[in-house]
Amino acid sequence: MSGLAIEVSVAPEYCAGESSDSESRFVFSYTVTVHNQSPHSVQLMARYWKITQGNGDSQEVRGKGVVGQQPLIGPGQRFRYTSRAILQTPVGVMEGAYTLLNTATQRAFDVPIAPFRLAVARQLH
């Protein structure tokens, strides 16, 4: 346990204009907010995502930082970014973790990201 209070929230959104039912291409954007509620600065070093399609297929994505950055987040600060996921089904779930570095101790720790749903909002007529 890191002892640091880091809150991660995610707001997903379906991108209808970039998606195609006939091509089984469902594009979602998701905006992530990382809120550092601790008294120390942290740096977001790496990400891990597990993306599960509605048909049960899943893939894992790992990489340095997010959106090409390894942001330093000061005490009380928030870092927000938007990224995308392309699914082959109209429903899916993403979950994961960020690896953060406590800049005071130079120790890395993981912050889990709770599962969130990606789903096409169908209009009822």
From TrEMBL:
Q: Which species is the source of this protein?
A: Vreelandella andesensis
Q: Which GO terms describe its biological process?
A: error-free translesion synthesis
ApaG domain residues = 1-125
**What domain of life does the UniProt record list for this protein's source?**
Bacteria
Write down the InterPro entries for this protein, in alphabetical order. Answer: ApaG_domain (IPR007474), ApaG_sf (IPR036767)
Q: What would be one Pfam family of this protein? A: DUF525
Q: What is this protein called?
A: Co2+/Mg2+ efflux protein ApaG
Q: Where does the record locate the signal sequence feature? A: none
